[in-house]
UniProtKB/TrEMBL annotation, chain A:
UniProt-listed Pfam families: ABC_tran
SUPFAM superfamilies hit by this protein: P-loop containing nucleoside triphosphate hydrolases
This protein's UniProt keywords: ATP-binding, Cell membrane, Membrane, Nucleotide-binding, Repeat, Sugar transport, Translocase, Transport
PANTHER family listed in its UniProt record: CARBOHYDRATE TRANSPORT ATP-BINDING PROTEIN MG119-RELATED (PTHR43790), GUANOSINE IMPORT ATP-BINDING PROTEIN NUPO (PTHR43790:SF4)
Family membership noted in the UniProt record: Belongs to the ABC transporter superfamily.
One annotated Gene Ontology cellular component of this protein: plasma membrane
Descriptive protein name: ABC transporter ATP-binding protein
A molecular-function term among this protein's GO annotations: ATP binding
Stretches assigned to the ABC transporter domain: 8-243, 260-507
Species of origin: Aliishimia ponticola
Bilayer topology: Peripheral membrane protein
Sections of the chain in a coiled coil: none
From TrEMBL, chain B:
Highest taxon, organism lineage: Bacteria
Transmembrane segments: 12-33, 53-75, 87-104, 110-128, 140-160, 202-220, 241-266, 286-313, 325-344
CDD domains hit by this protein: TM_PBP1_transp_TpRbsC_like
Protein name from the UniProt record: ABC transporter permease
Annotated keywords: Cell membrane, Membrane, Transmembrane, Transmembrane helix
An example molecular function term from Gene Ontology annotations: transmembrane transporter activity
Phylogenetic classification of the source organism: Bacteria, Pseudomonadati, Pseudomonadota, Alphaproteobacteria, Rhodobacterales
Organism: Aliishimia ponticola
Membrane topology category: Multi-pass membrane protein
UniProtKB/TrEMBL annotation, chain D:
Main localization of the protein described in the UniProt heading: membrane
Name the record gives this protein: ABC transporter permease
Pfam family, any one: BPD_transp_2
Chain coiled-coil ranges: none
Residue intervals passing through the bilayer: 12-30, 42-59, 91-113, 153-174, 205-224, 256-273, 285-304
Top-level taxonomic group: Bacteria
Cell compartment(s), UniProt: Cell membrane
Keyword field: Cell membrane, Membrane, Transmembrane, Transmembrane helix
Record's bilayer topology term: Multi-pass membrane protein
InterPro entries: ABC_transp_permease
Single GO term (MF): transmembrane transporter activity
Keyword Cell membrane on entry: yes
Gene Ontology cellular component list: plasma membrane
């Protein structure tokens, strides 16, 4: 193996976006038939580096060698020709196209569509057999789950006969089950002799599947080690530059009286499909109720109803007072007034306005607050000051209130949302996917904040597809499947396996 | 993450863009066998060379400020209100009715009510498309286009069949009473010992337009409502999460927008013509779109763009007086200005960015 | 007027009059085509201050600005075409009896029509145009009491003056209603009317200046409004042009119908005879052609 | 109203709908590729002027058509430069192009012909003559079908038939060819096209060019088929109506045809029945004049509902900032 040429070798890659040096003189070599992990904080430069390898961005300096040959990759076309495929962090699919159309796009043979599609359909079946990548070729992308969408991205790469596959934060949006399936697939691909680069924030995955791993910090490659010769703790330290607690340490909860009381909650969407079927649940002061479940089983709807912006029938009580579920009073603002804070699942679409400056985002939703206003006018300087304080306390980087939300990394974007919602010290905090796409340094911090809030005697409803997260944070775990609550467990008395079954719809008794 | 510093953004880029527009205009003028430098001299002289020129420049600018602001407000809510023309027409009707139906004792009171009338009619004309957009999802671009045509017909009907004085050949209302004539800049500045040309249409409305700029700025950047309008405009999904009602914002933004467009009438109808004629707006509503977009929907930008177009209008008129350059040449120049300052700005910005990057290349992290 | 020079009718006629004067006398004149309402007054002052004398204005829309400006320049003479209702000492106001001219072409239309249906296509729906239509209708009815008159306006926005496509469609629509002679008083839109009439083999009638040559043998005639003459005379008179109100009707040769080699074979002798007779009668006052303005309505045609 | 009248109204509908449909399809290609275009009006106008001018000078309508298309494509290229290459504001660029055309046409025409921005009237070979379909005369007297064929279908200029053939053509290109797939994709998510190794810029320029050609034909149809020459501003707002029709049709080819025909029909009716006499009172001409617009609004509010534009529409494609 030593004398064999590396599948990929990068030499002295540098890239700046305007003033930001995203990559500084980076060199790595990845051997064929191996899985190479890349970890690093948000904004460390991982995605940029890979985008350069895939010809999406052009490097300012540096050389690329593919299996020994020096290769210039001016655009994605060249990358594809060189046998490189990439699954981006934010998928690059045409939402209203079918799976098949997305796969042939750019790889059609001939001017006419029909033959290309027919051929693709055949190849697709073969690929499905080979790697059990199951997707309905005629499904519309926006109607299939993220897991399936990601399989489409992988199929896209394989359809283009990629030998080198790059995955940027592939499991960020997947359930454990889906993640395990993904890793089985990656395993197969490795056996086939394909080379894989895996960017992730989850050390468990690194340890589980990679052969070698590189660590990036502030645009530089700080270390490359054999996975077998390292430990999560060491990696975490390399990555963040300090010791990181990988487990949440929390005292047992002292539940107080009921804060959130939900009875027979139902939601029917405009297509007449039942999204929530008679949900009953309670959250007490000083406890965290975790809602586990595969994405798309009603968790989002539950949060939106409780958050006040989806119509529903049934009863929702906060501190004993009935919340309107339709018409006037059924909106985020009134909910906030009655002591409910909400960290939405999708920070980029709902939690933040990406074009707004950080300080505007901190005021967002609370812009009526007396503290932010002087008479009829808003007191922007007050908001800015408050934002600086919050950024300080939540250690948002860079701590610059004037910077637009879109220019913060995912982790820091999430911190801004949390700062806004937690600092209101609400009676009830609704929080969805708190650490999706966020680096471990930030995860540790966010988890601490959540627990701290609980210890102040607040009620917290946590929705996450990360079982690990659910288990480590929650005091009680409820599992949702197909708009229903399949069962409730105590973290101490259950495990990922049992929950996995519940999430798959195997009812509590059976499990 | 902007590379080009603010000062350059607001000075260098527009100036270079204008230069480019001027150069291309010159090429066209040469092509039709005229002398561009002379033309430029005439335009600048005519527009800024005398209080007389200023009077007209500011008069046109006033119109554009109103319609520009109107478009900008709606645009902040990501509503593309092409209906400024029709809303301004109806505003004219409102102003005319106010001025004709009541024997006003003094222009101040008349102006106050004329403003209410104009704004109300303009807002009304915007309200229907707004409601259709908010409630029925009918595309506001179509509905406002349609309402421009409908507004023109309404005005035509009112003038020809209702408001036209009997026996007059001119499809226009009677002249407004002396009492409601607005003081011109001449009247206003005289007390301060400033001799301003007597025969220009610029009038108090100018100051109302300026006030409107300030108020709109406050509204958009300093009030809760403005915050909500911008939030809704940037991300409807986020607005929904925050409990900002889309219907409410759509209606309010469009009402304000239509109201501002309608307000224009106090300048052209009450201030200048002092009666309501056919087609009193003469495309100011459409030009407002360009003015707003060029001004980046910021009141101050709108103000500058409005002055610029006031200059082009007045300078253009002078050009027509003193040369045989066809009047359509002015439209060409306007087009080039809009193109270069509004749409091709990156053509200037990109090279500048490279320069500035090179300058501060050292201090990159 | 905002219509613009070379509209092939009204403003162009004025321009030609001015040119004729310039060519003959070698004198010079300055002209401006307005593009905005505010410029009406502006232009008047500009010329007055520049010492132009007389200052000639075209179109009724100049009346209002004139009333404001004229007084400020007492020793400048103004000539206002299509304006008759101002009281200003230094303004020569020239009105045309368009209804009389229209009456004559109306007669010709009715006589030339085989179907007994004639058409009228106006530009923008304004009183002046109705005035044309009204005279036309009376003329047609005079020849053939039960003639059918199809009247249309092109539109209600200024675009109506420059929409030949709509002009064509209107012509076709009127043909389908039986019209076989169409009178166009619609500026640029008229170009489309005459064109379509020629293409479809029916007759058309031009307006203001002689448009017979546009489609030789296919334009029945043109209602002449001798703006050129008026302008020419005014310029000839120069500084000391006589002020006051002048209405140029048939008697003054201010209006009439065009007869030239292009339409010679279309106008039979008896048609000519009949029309000329009517002309005399109108001049003699035996025929009273009703003007639309008198009470904003028209007995012969309703709009 | 009698059968023949209906035929005549429909006949006029077709003539009025043709330029709308051409412009509408033009906008279709551009906007499906993610480039908003409110400059249809301007492109039609300049094409009308150049087609008429060149047809007059050369005496060949086909050369005229060519010139018209070329001029329109030139403006389209300018729009592309602004909105694709320099990622400018597509709306401003569109507005500018409308102004530019409105001014340029008159300035140039005046400079060439000294007719105040008109072009001389066209005769014979310099115009598109109506085409009489085979046996039109023969079957003309056949009851019902005869007139439909002879009056309604026959006797239009070649461009009309081409235009209506373009509808299935467009449908086929967009939904059945590789180019169509990529075009739709680039309008929905350019990043997907880019990462698939296809040039976003290339695709968008292609779309804009097609838009230019179609607008060119539309302008030429106005000036050399419907009319016999150019008159300033002769497009009279048809570009905007076409835009409305496009949105109305939710950016789909067949509905685009129907909505254009609807607009044409409404206009034809309005032209045919001014001053409708309802016995009690007569509807004023103004009311009939705006009928098409009023009905559009009503239909829009009543039946069409939300129209979702191509997702990437109007936003320049930027991957680095
Ligand atoms: N398109 C872009 N334009 C400008 N700057 C960018 C762009 N993409 C990334 N950057 C800058 O480059 C730096 C590295 O970004 P990159 O996406 O590579 O980080 P990352 O390691 O992928 O972060 P994450 O873990 O959140 O995915 C960021 O801090 C950002 O400031
Ligand atoms: N267009 C851009 N301009 C400036 N910075 C950008 C841009 N796109 C991404 N970035 C920065 O690059 C870094 C990584 O961004 P990336 O695209 O990987 O998503 P992200 O920020 O990691 O979000 P998530 O963590 O949810 O994936 C962040 O610092 C982000 O702010
Ligand atoms: Mg990344
Ligand atoms: Mg990330």
């Amino acid at each position: 193996m030593a004398n064999e040429a590396p599948a990929i070798e990068l030499k002295g890659i540098s890239k700046a976006f305007g003033p930001v040096q995203a990559n500084k003189d980076i060199s790595i070599r990845v051997m064929p038939g191996t899985i190479h992990g890349i970890i690093g904080e948000n904004g460390a430069g991982k995605s940029t580096l890979m985008s350069i390898l895939y010809g999406f961005y052009k490097a300012d300096a540096g050389e690329i060698f593919i299996s020994g040959q020096k290769t210039t990759i001016p655009d994605s076309q060249a990358a594809i020709a060189a046998g490189i495929g990439m699954v981006f962090q934010h998928f690059k699919l045409v939402e209203n196209f079918t799976v098949l159309e997305n796969i042939v796009l750019g790889a059609e043979d001939g001017g006419l569509l029909r033959p290309s599609l027919a051929k693709a359909r055949k190849t697709l079946e073969e690929l499905e057999q080979e790697y059990d990548l199951k997707v309905d070729p005629d499904a519309i992308i926006e109607q299939i789950g993220v897991g399936a969408q990601q399989r489409v991205e992988i199929l896209k790469a394989l359809y283009r006969q990629a030998n080198i596959l790059i995955l940027d934060e592939p499991t960020g949006v997947l359930t454990p089950a889906e993640a395990d399936q993904l890793f089985r697939i990656l395993g197969r691909l490795r056996e086939e002799g394909k080379t894989i680069i895996l960017i992730t924030h989850k050390l468990r995955e690194i340890m589980e599947i990679t052969d070698t791993v590189s660590v990036m910090r502030r645009g530089e490659m700080t270390a490359t080690v054999k996975t077998s010769e390292t430990s999560p703790e060491e990696l975490a330290e390399l990555m963040v530059g300090r010791k990181v607690l990988l487990q949440v340490d929390k005292t047992p909860a002292q539940p107080g009286d009921v804060i959130l009381d939900v009875k027979n909650l139902r939601v029917v969407d405009e297509m007449g499909v039942e999204r929530l079927r008679s949900i009953d649940l309670q959250v007490r002061a000083g406890e965290i109720l975790g809602i586990a479940g595969v994405a798309g089983n009603g968790q989002s709807e539950l949060l939106e109803v409780l958050g006040g912006y989806m119509d529903a029938t049934g009863e929702v009580r906060v501190n004993g007072t009935l919340m309107p579920l339709t018409g006037a009073g059924a909106d985020g603002r009134s909910r906030r007034e009655s002591g409910v804070s909400h960290v939405p699942e999708d920070r980029q679409r709902e939690g933040l306005i990406m074009d707004f400056a950080a300080w505007e985002n901190v005021a967002f939703g609370y812009h009526d607050d007396a503290a932010y206003n002087r008479g009829v006018l808003m007191d922007n300087s007050a908001v800015r000051a408050d934002t600086e304080a919050k950024m300080e306390r939540f250690d948002v980087r860079p701590p610059n209130p004037a910077l637009a939300a879109k220019n913060f990394s995912g982790g820091n974007q999430q911190k801004i949302v949390l700062a806004r919602e937690i600092e209101r010290n609400p009676d009830l905090l609704l929080i969805g996917q708190p650490t999706r796409g966020v680096d471990i340094g930030a995860i540790e911090f966010i988890h601490q904040q959540i627990v701290a809030l609980r210890d102040q005697g607040k009620a917290i409803l946590l929705v996450s597809v990360e079982l690990e997260e659910i288990l480590s944070l929650s005091d009680r775990v409820a599992v949702m499947f197909d708009g229903q609550i399949m069962g409730e467990r105590l973290p101490s008395q259950t495990d990922e396996k049992e929950l996995g079954l519940l999430m798959a719809g195997v009812s509590g008794e059976a499990a | 993450m902007d590379v080009v510093p603010k000062w350059a953004e607001v000075t260098l880029i527009p100036i270079i863009s204008l230069l480019l527009a001027a150069i291309f205009s010159a090429i066209v003028i040469i092509a039709i066998g005229e002398d561009p430098l002379n033309a430029l001299k005439i335009m600048v002289q005519g527009a800024f060379g005398s209080t007389y020129g200023w009077g007209y420049t500011l008069y046109y600018a006033t119109n554009f400020m109103f319609t520009g602001l109107a478009f900008a407000v709606a645009f902040h809510a990501s509503l593309f209100n092409i209906g400024g023309e029709g809303q301004a027409l109806l505003g004219g009707l409102g102003v005319a009715l106010v001025c004709l139906l009541v024997p006003w004792p003094h222009w101040t009171i008349a102006l106050l009510f004329a403003m209410i009338g104009g704004a109300a009619f303009g807002a009304l004309w915007a309200a229907i498309p707004a409601w259709l957009q908010a409630k029925r999802g009918s595309h506001i671009v179509i509905t406002t286009i349609m309402f421009n045509f409908i507004g023109a017909a309404v005005l035509n009907y009112m003038l020809v069949n209702v408001l036209k004085p009997k026996g007059s050949q001119d499809p226009a209302t009677a002249r407004f009473a002396e009492a409601v004539h607005l003081p011109t800049l001449h009247d206003i500045l005289a007390p301060f010992g400033i001799a301003f040309s007597k025969s220009t249409p610029a009038n108090v409305s100018l100051f109302i337009a300026l006030a409107a700029c300030v108020l709109v700025w406050l509204l958009i950047w300093r009030t809760r409502l403005g915050f909500e309008i911008r939030a809704f405009g940037k991300s409807q999904s986020a607005a929904r999460y925050a409990g900002i009602s889309g219907v409410r914002i759509t209606m309010i933004a469009m009402l304000i927008s239509g109201g501002l467009a309608g307000l224009m009438a106090i300048n052209n109808v009450m201030g200048e013509a002092e009666r309501l004629v056919l087609n009193p707006t003469e495309g100011a509503g459409f030009l407002g779109i360009a003015v707003a977009l060029m001004g980046r929907s910021h009141p101050f930008g709108v103000f500058l763009a409005a002055i610029l177009f006031g200059f082009l209008y007045q300078g253009g008129a002078e050009l027509a007086f003193f040369t045989s350059i066809p009047r359509e040449m002015i439209i060409v120049i306007q087009a080039l200005v809009i193109m270069f300052t509004g749409a091709l700005d990156n053509m200037v910005r990109m090279p500048l960015e490279r320069i500035f990057l090179a300058l501060r290349g050292k201090e990159v992290r | 007027d905002l219509g613009g020079k070379f509209d092939k009718s009204f403003n162009e006629a004025a321009f030609n009059g001015a040119k004729r004067w310039a060519d003959e006398t070698g004198g010079s004149f300055r002209e401006i085509e307005l593009q905005s309402e505010a410029q009406r007054e502006q232009a008047l002052r500009r010329f007055a201050e520049a010492g132009s004398n007389p200052v000639i204005t075209m179109g009724f829309a100049m009346a209002d600005p004139l009333s404001a400006v004229a007084a400020d320049y007492p020793d400048t003479k103004f000539v206002a075409v299509d304006v008759t209702w101002l009281d200003a000492p230094n303004v020569r106001q020239i009105g045309f009896a368009e209804h009389e001219g229209s009456y004559l072409v109306g007669m010709l239309a009715a006589m030339a029509s085989k179907s007994g249906t004639v058409g009228f296509i106006g530009g923008m729906d304004i009183p002046l145009i109705r005035h044309f239509g009204c005279g036309y209708a009376q003329g047609a009815k005079a020849v053939n009491p039960d003639v059918k008159i199809v009247a249309n306006m092109t539109g209600t926005t200024p675009a109506a003056w420059n929409d030949p496509v709509k002009g064509s469609e209107l012509t076709k629509a009127q043909m389908s209603q039986g019209a076989d002679v169409v009178y166009a008083a619609a500026g640029g839109t008229g170009v489309g009317v005459l064109q379509t009439a020629a293409d479809e083999g029916i007759l058309s009638i031009g307006v203001d200046s002689n448009q017979n040559h546009l489609h030789p043998g296919k334009v029945l005639t043109s209602m002449l409004k001798r703006v050129d003459v008026a302008v020419y005379d005014a310029m000839k008179a120069g500084e000391n042009v006589e002020t006051g109100v002048f209405t140029l009707g048939l008697a003054e040769e201010g209006v009439g119908y065009a007869l030239d080699e292009n339409n010679a074979e279309l106008i039979t002798d008896e048609m000519k005879a009949a029309v000329d007779a009517a002309r005399e009668k109108i001049i003699g006052g035996e025929i009273e052609v009703e003007a639309y303005y008198t009470n904003d309505s028209c007995s012969a045609l309703d709009f | 109203m009698d059968f023949l009248t209906i035929i005549q109204i429909l006949d006029s509908t077709i003539r009025l709908a043709t330029p709308l449909l051409l412009a509408c399809l033009a906008g279709f290609f551009s906007e499906r590729a993610g480039i908003f275009d409110i400059g249809l009006e301007g492109k039609m106008l300049i094409a009308a002027m150049f087609s008429a001018a060149v047809a007059y000078v050369t005496g060949s309508v086909w050369l005229g058509l060519l010139a018209g298309a070329a001029s329109s494509v030139a403006l389209a290229a300018l729009h592309g430069l602004a909105s694709i290459t320099f990622r400018g504001n597509q709306l401003i660029s569109g507005v500018a192009i409308n102004f530019l055309a409105a001014g340029m046409t008159v300035v140039i025409a005046q400079d060439w012909f000294q007719l105040g921005g008109r072009t001389p009237s066209l005769f014979g070979g310099a115009r598109f003559e109506p085409i009489i379909l085979p046996f039109a005369e023969a079957v003309a007297d056949v009851p019902f079908l005869g007139p439909i064929y002879a009056e309604l279908l026959s006797g239009h200029s070649i461009l009309v038939y081409v235009t209506f053939l373009l509808v299935p053509g467009t449908w086929w290109v967009i939904y059945r060819t590789r180019f169509g797939l990529r075009l739709r994709a680039v309008g929905e998510n350019p990043a997907a096209v880019d990462t698939a190794g296809v040039s976003v810029v290339g695709l968008r320029y292609a779309a804009v060019a097609i838009c230019g050609v179609l607008c060119g034909i539309a302008g030429a149809y106005l000036a050399t088929a419907l009319q016999a020459g150019f008159v300033k501003d002769m497009t009279a707002g048809r570009g905007f109506i076409a835009l409305a029709a496009l949105i109305f049709a939710k950016w789909r080819p067949w509905p685009a045809m129907w909505s254009c025909l609807l607009f044409g029909l409404l206009q034809a009716i309005a032209l045919r029945y001014q001053n409708l006499d309802l016995g009690v009172f007569t509807v004023p001409v103004q009311a009939m004049d705006v009928l098409p617009y009023v009905l559009t609004v009503i239909i829009l509010a009543g039946f069409v509902g939300k129209a979702i534009p191509p997702r990437a529409g109007g936003v320049p494609y930027v991957k680095e900032r």
